[in-house]
Predict the 3D structure of the following.
Amino acid sequence: MESSKEQLAAPADKLIGRVWHYCTDILPTAAAGVSWREFFEASQRVARLNSPESGLMTFDMDALSPQTFACVVLEVWASEMTRDCPFKHERGMGELPECDLGKLVTTQQAAFFRTWLLLGEVLRPTQILDARERLITRPAPNRAVVERHWYSTASQIAKEPEMTRDVVPGRLPGGWTTRGDWFLTIGPESRSRRLGERAIDLLCRRRDNVSRLDLGIGLPVRDLRPTEASDDEFNKTLETALEIIDCKTALPCRMTYEQLLCLTKVSKTMSLRYLWRSQIPRYYRCDRVFEHWIGRFVASAAAWNRQLKGVGINGFVAYDSKSGCVSSVLTEQQSVELAKAEETCKEMCRAMCCHLIKFAYSGRKDALKTSTPDEECEANLI
C-alpha cells in the first residue's frame, strides 16, 4: 500500500491483511484469532495512510450509554488476562467471587495497565469525555477506521445510503466479547401471574423476534426456526438490518442471519468467548463508579502516551515491553518514563479499588473485611 504520506513495509502490509481477513471473513482462516494489540496497530496504520486533513480517527464507538465504553474496557482487559482470566464462557453461572472488580483491579493490575497503554494510543479524550472528564453519550461520528457497535447501533448506519459502501461489518478481536444478559420476570407482588406469563410469551414470540431483527432493534432471544425447517436453510432466507456489498453484483444487499451468526459465533474451542457482566458480583451497584474511574483513566492514559512519545516510544512499544516481548528493548530514560506511568496507574487502581468496595458493600458489615487497600485511601476519593 502506498500513500503520499507514508509507504508501509511488507510486515505492516501483512498485519493489515491478516486483521482484515480475520475480522471480515465469514469463516476466518486465522484460527488463533487476532489480539487487540494487532488490531489497534493495523487500524492506526490505515488511519495514517489518509491525509491529516481528513480528520480520520483510529478507533471510536457508538456511545449509546457510558456502559458501551465500560464494555470495551472489560473486553480488552479480559483478553489481556490470558490464562488467569476468571470469567466463564457459560451463561447462567451467577455471580463469581473471583470476578469481583475490586479483586480484579488488584490481582490483574498488570493486564489493566497494558489495556490502557493500548487504549491511550488509539483514543483521544475529547472523543468520549466532557470537560469534567466524565463519559459522554453520543452516536458514532463515522469518522474512524474502526468503530465498536451493538447490533442496534450498527443497524442505524444502514439507514444512511452514503455510508453503506464505506462500512463493512466484522467480528471483534481479542478473546472476549461482552453480551447482554437481561431477563423478563414477574414480580412476586404481581396480582396475576398467568397474565404476566402471557405478556412475556407475546413479547418473546417468534414473530416479534423476527420483526426486531428486521428493524434493527435487537437480536433474537429465542430459536426462530419453525419445527419443519432446518437451521441452515431458514437462516439463509432471514435478513437482518445490516447492509453489505454483494461480491457478485457489487450492489448493496441485506446481510443474512446466517452470515451474522458466522461472524459472531463463539465457543469454548474458539479464541473468542462471551463475557457476562452478571458474573461480576454486585455490578449493578458499582457500575457507575467503574464508569467514573475509566473516564479518569482515559485522560491519564493520554497523558502517559504523550510523555512516552517525548522519549521516543509509543503505546505499542511500551505494551510490548510490559508483555515481555524480546524484540522490545528500552533505553534507561524510556524505562524510567514507563515506570512512572505504571506507578501512576497503580495509585489510581488503589483508589478505584477502595471506591468500588465502598459502593459494592455499602451498608454491609463485611465492607472492609477483604484483602484490599485500607481506609486511608478513601480520603483521596473525594
